[in-house]
Amino acid sequence: MLDIPKAIEAIGDAFKSAADYAKIAKKRQSETEIIKEKRQLKKAANTAEKIFRIFLKYIDELSEEDREKVEDLLKDFDKDD
User: With CB atoms counted within 10 Å of each terminal CB, which end of the chain scores lower, N or C?
Assistant: First the structure.
């Protein structure tokens, strides 16, 4: 004979397990996306630093106003490291 309360409990447990799995999968997906974004930001920062190094070779060619702006930007950039 079929035990209705146990069958209902089993169905409820199955739905709970599916919901828990979905939550865990969503969390892992979010963590993966954060890691990817962090890698992209690091790559962008490294590229910007290389650009600054090249650009600084020619800083004497700039007007005083532009040179000051570049120096301020470089200070801001270095603060974030």
Answer: N
Give me the pLDDT at residue 64, please.
Answer: 92
Local structure of residue 60 (DSSP, 8 states): G
Proportion of the chain in helix, strand, coil states, percent, rounded to 5: 90, 0, 10
Q: Where are the chain's structural domains? A: 4-79
Mean pLDDT over 3-22 rounds to 78
Q: CA of 13: how far to CAs of 19, 21, 22, 52, 79, in Å?
A: 10, 12, 14, 58, 52
Compute the distance between CA of residue 42 and CA of residue 44 in angstroms, rounded to an integer: 5
Mean pLDDT score across all residues of the chain: 83
Token pair 């950039």: residue: 77
